[in-house]
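ok trying again, last paste got cut off:
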Amino acid sequence: MDGSSLWILFLFIFIIVPQMKQQMIKWRRINALRNCEKRRGTRIITLIHRQESMGFWGMFSRNFINIEDSEEVLRAIRLTSDDTPIDLIVHTPGGLLLAAEQIARALKRHPAKVTVVVPHYAMSGGTLIALAADEILMDPHAVLGPVDPQIGKYPAASILKAVEQKSPDELDDETLILADISRKAIRQTRDLVFELISDRLGDEKGTEIASVLTDGRWTHDYPITPYEATSLGLPVVFNEQDSFCNMMSLYPQSGAERPSVQYIRDPYPGRPSASGKN
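nice, full thing came through this time. structure:
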């Protein structure tokens, strides 16, 4: 095999094949979306952040909610008629507050029913978006998270707590500025949560939930289960039947030589375990 043939083989394996795989999975996603929309009679939008093999060397990056996401979601909402329900599938660790706020407010203003679907997790900004929905459809083991503001690498509530434990003459100007920003951030986020939920849950319940989710009583990565979300008063519905059109299977993690999770995909209904439990 001469040099030109080796170059063509290299080109095919490392450039053309990854691109073909990406195009194939995009086609499968579109097909799955169309089928699911027909079944549910809704417009389905996905906001899914995963690590995916991309481009020349199959490199990947982890994504978060950003302005480009909000632009696309807002465009999709504008293209949806007022009488068409929206299903938004959210799988995200969170991201830019401004972008999440834009998406949440746009969903809130949509006249038809809005359902936010959480197959696995919608943390931080993802939870903020879910609060705008008429219904939050969650798998039994899916989780939401607190929406308490983060100032740099520290929670705003923790900054304020640290400041309260010292006298003002012990604090430098930068710490005092951070404390001022923290108070504003907590107030603004609490007001936004109240705005999103109070018309459905009432002012008293809206104030309570807004405080619980923003006051820093939990760490920012605390998992709020569907059961806890229901006890708080959020409009959670359990998705016991399927993983919502199996959409998540079309957003795989980055490729690897050995998968970290592996199993035989055939269902085993009623198969007894070693302990004798079904």
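cool. The helical segments are 3-40, 67-78, 97-109, 125-130, 156-164, 173-201, 203-214, 226-232. The two ends are 58 Å apart (CA to CA).
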